[in-house]
Amino acid sequence: MKLIHNGDPNRTLAMMIETYDPGTTTGERLKHQGEEIGTLLEGEVMLQVNGQSYHLQAGQSYAINTAIPHSFSNTSARICRIISAHTPTTF
User: Where is pLDDT greater, at 1 or 24?
Assistant: First the structure.
């Protein structure tokens, strides 16, 4: 993950570029206060939220309540890149 803002601790919104190599996953379900929106720039990813799975491809977007357990898995043979915004800043 790469932050694309200056890391000012007074900010309440963070932008990131996330890169998932083929076969990688965030592992166990993530859970933290806030919201997240993102758009896949390239590749594809399996987003799991609260027991539901969503197969997303380049150009598609998502919006989730991050207090609900979630994870990302790249089961494809191509790299996946996502640009995302998070509030509050947790990274």
Answer: 24
* Architecture of the structural domain at 2-87: Sandwich (2.60)
CA 4, CA 64: separation in Å to the nearest integer? 20
Q: What's the CA gap between 86 and 55, in Å, rounded?
A: 21
Q: Is the peptide bond before 88 cis (omega within 30 degrees of 0)?
A: yes
CA distance linking residue 22 with residue 43, whole number of Å: 9
Rounded Cα distance between 72 and 53, Å, is 10
State pTM to two decimals.
0.85
Contact 1, 82 (CB under 8 A): no
Domain boundaries, the chain: 2-87
Mean pLDDT of 12-39: 89
